[in-house]
Design a protein that fits this description.
about 300 residues, 2 domains, Histone, subunit A, globular
Length: about 300
């Protein structure tokens, strides 16, 4: 099996810096596992790695789609595997939701006709109403989805309607096996430190002009039902645009949702994947993990 290095962990945990460090050490390339960084123009809110930050390391699956395009875990599975299988260089997947990573690394099959439904009966439903509908038919899946992630909620409802079974049940009955020799390194730190770093990152996004980015996307024809606007950092602007809250409230909501998402990520990874955790703020622990990865890469 081909080797794949994965750098996982919550937002603001130091994944990007460590992935670039290891890419230099291993002469490797990086595949972005992020669901929003694929979109051109979604830069600040997604925390997109800049050209300077890349330090000359090739990065795949960044800026490849229009903001009006759809991008699913099935798309990531296909494109990431194509890159891994076609390249002689070691590929490092940096970031990404647990589902994206599992779809790529494991022998994972998707439910029939996965994707947002175009059924007009749902067009007038609020996010809360859609989430309540999903809670009735697939409460386990609701545990994995943010209540305002309209796209994922509709996808799970679509899967239920077109397969006759909840998505969580379909996944539970699949015998997933790893198809790559993957080493999954997880960046972590004390929870209080992580939350402080998340808050600092959100403050920086606002200082960099996140509101201008949102306004620019909306003026280009993007709306809050598009996939690129489903991520944390984007969806929270919906009430502000409608005049329902102030920008300081948006900032606070982004911080709260980011904290909650980080907590869910830890829970998911600890139960779903064999992660080698290390404290990304401790130089000795970073060195230990670097050494473990180098040993694995040479086997």
């Amino acid at each position: 099996m081909k080797k794949v290095l994965v750098i996982a962990g919550p937002t603001a945990s130091g994944k990007t810096a460590f992935a670039i460090h290891m890419a230099h050490q291993l002469k490797a390339e990086i595949i972005s596992g992020d669901s929003i960084q694929v979109y051109r123009g979604c830069d600040i809110g997604s925390g997109k790695v800049t050209a300077e930050e890349r330090e000359g390391i090739p990065h795949a699956l960044i800026d490849i789609l229009s903001p009006k395009d759809r991008y699913t875990s099935a798309d990531f599975q296909r494109m990431a595997r194509e890159k891994i299988d076609a390249s002689d260089a070691l590929q490092i997947i940096c970031g990404g939701t647990g589902m994206y990573l599992k779809a790529c690394l494991y022998d994972y099959s998707f439910a029939k006709e996965e994707g947002p439904s175009t059924d007009p009966k749902w067009d007038s439903c609020s996010d809360e109403e859609l989430y309540a509908m999903l809670m009735k038919v697939d409460p386990k899946q609701c545990e994995k989805i943010h209540p305002h992630n309209r796209r994922r909620i509709m996808r799970s409802l679509t899967i239920y309607e077109r397969n006759g079974r909840p998505q969580s049940e379909i996944v539970a009955h699949q015998d997933h096996k790893m198809i790559y020799d993957a080493f999954i390194a997880g960046c972590t730190m004390e929870r209080e430190q992580l939350y402080a770093r998340i808050d600092q990152r959100v403050d920086k996004m606002f200082a960099q002009g996140l509101e201008n980015e949102i306004q620019r996307l909306l003026k280009s024809g993007v709306n809050f039902t598009d996939a690129c606007m489903q991520g944390i950092g984007y969806q929270e602007w919906k009430p502000y645009i409608k005049g329902g809250c102030a920008s300081d409230q948006v900032k606070e909501q982004i911080k709260i949702h980011s904290h909650q998402f980080a907590k869910r990520q830890y829970t998911w990874f600890n139960h779903q994947m064999p992660v080698h955790w290390f404290n990304s703020l401790e130089p000795e622990d970073v060195q230990r993990m670097s050494s473990e990865i180098k040993i694995w890469s040479q086997k």
